[in-house]
Amino acid sequence: MFFDKEKHLKNKEKRQNEKQEYENILQSFEKTSSLESEKIIFSDKRNEVLIKKTLLGKRYFVYPYKEIIGYKPIINGKSIKKHHGINKAPPTIALVIP
Predict the structure, then answer these.
(1) Is residue 28 helix, strand or coil?
(2) CA quadruple 34, 16, 95, 84: dihedral sign
(3) Which is higher by pLDDT, 71 or 43?
(4) ∠ CA 54-67-47 to the nearest 5 degrees?
């Protein structure tokens, strides 16, 4: 009555497909990565950047290099963490990763 089994199965299958798609993309980026940090993988062969899923962020993002308009290294104390500050074009959409 309240539980639609058919809809539940479709949603479950959709989630499994999305998870498999993410795993395939992640594997592909890890194989061709030129630089990797905690949340970001740069792939020069693909000319793309992958921003990984996080515990709270359930989505991942893939951006081509040509959409990146700026880069700023972030310095914490004695260590330098690169590729955590990225701005993305167009100007109305800004992507900033802490």
Answers:
(1) helix
(2) negative
(3) 43
(4) 80
